[in-house]
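hiii, so i know i said id send this last week but things got crazy w the move. better late than never?? heres the sequnce for the chain we talked about at the cafe, plus the structure i predicted for it. fair warning i was half asleep when i ran it
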Amino acid sequence: MTRILLLLTAALLLSLVSDEFETPYEKSGKTHSATHEQAISFYQKLDAAYPQLKLLEYGLTDVGRPLNLVVISKDKVFDPAAVRQSGKRILFINNAIHPGESCGVDACMMLARDLMEQSSMQSLLDHSVICIVPIYNIGGSLNRGCCTRANQLGPAEQGFRGNAKNLDLNRDFIKCDSKNALSLTRIFQAWKPDVFIDTHTTNGADYPAHLTYIPSLPDKAPPQLRGYMDQALLPAIKKHMAAKKIPICPYVYNMGRTPEDGLMGFLDHPRYSSGYANLFHSLCFITEAHMLKTFEQRVTATYEFILGTLTHVNKEHEEIGRVLKQSRESIRQQEEYVLTWELDKQRKSSLMFDGYEAKYKTSEVTGQQRWYYDRSAPYSKEVDYFEHYKPTFSVKKPRVYILPQAYDEVIERMEANGVEMKSLEKDMTIEVEVSYITSFKNRNRPYEGHFYYDEVVTRREVMPMSYHKGDKLIVTDQMANDYIVHVLEPESHDSFFRWGFFDGILMQKEYFSPYLFEDEAAQMLKEDKKLKEEFEAKKAEDEAFAKNWWAQLSFIYERSPYYEKSHNRYPVGRWNGAMSDLGL
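okay and structure toks below
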């Protein structure tokens, strides 16, 4: 009798614990997503109940609330350096960068709970530590409503894509306009994840898959990581999802109107989460649960994708560690970096794709023909798959970049990203290679808070430059090399120049009085035959120039000793001389 009572008491206690750690999503019948307050409260309870889980705070977000990180460590070690030294692999999951796409929020809450409560899952933490950002875009999560995702099936309430500054945080990983991004950058650099997953819900075509995925773009990823992703990690995840009977496929990014027109890989520039993580040689995924599946299906698919990843990472921790070490050490020796890409339309493969036929019918709104996906007409066929991109611009790294201390916003972002910098010990005139911005095109409207430059053309010159005590010396022999080159070379697709951090150089500061400069210009043409020839040739070939007296005087002024050499000159110097000459 006593034994029966004990068993009943244990069962009752277990049921109470289970009720206590039932998520808001589960309590709602799997129709509602947790609010920010509910998510943090849930993790606080787990933190109090289980010493293997800690809820940490890392800096503020734009809405004034701290950015939290949940760390799950079987050994109760929560110092990132100690975790890395232990040889455990770090799996990092970022949720609600777009809070209307919240399936990862609820999936991770359940996964954290299950890892604590289910003894059968404890072994998954033997060789791995999990880091979870519960809700990244807190401001957007607080801005909840019924109708922010017009074409998405649930949840009952969704957050808003923009954060408290109305920024899309999945375009902010380089420029870091938000406090969110700077805080997450510091978390990422502290933990240096081996595998990184950013959870989303996709818009777009209709198809049977519950979830699509974007891995590191094959051509951008280092060779070691590319091979491991294609041959080991991704096949293991696919196998896990197939065993759970959850259909998945690569991200559906159409070449034309529908998937049957062909699919292409997504070019994840460093502004995006996976493109950023790729700069630091993490194995990266963006998951995109399908908007037209039920919220329960999306949460389940996201849960299982993360669980499948964790299972493989824990099992193959030694091999992943070896591959990552090899990849990250090679970055010190890498000399050339590709900075811009375009789709390689000559290089294609085929992909077996499950879809629905796209058909046309008369619109009840416009009376014209509209297209739709017919779920009663499924198909499975091979479609063209353009997975590869080709380089359009590359550069060799210098030994040292010299960054003037005046650009403190750039320095702050470099520091947050773990870039090692030393300060120049005295004023010096140094002969360096510099870039002149010869042309650029910016957008007519701001893009994520900036008039981003879509096209940048430069020319390079070697010249003496004055640098001052305290200016920053950045040696390109460090783990952050990929990041350093991508943000400091002005032509790079997500350089600090393109995002407007060096706009001051594009405006001329000193000018001339035409009535006084006329005489000097005439004298210059008399004394300089080469200048005279260039001037006359310009007038002969350019009718507008020949009729514009200001343009003609400016042409001569810009070739005079009075014209400021700093106009359009990018101030970051490239040094390839002896390190000792810089005091290094």
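btw Residues 223-243 form the longest helix (21 residues). thought thatd interest u
miss u guys!!
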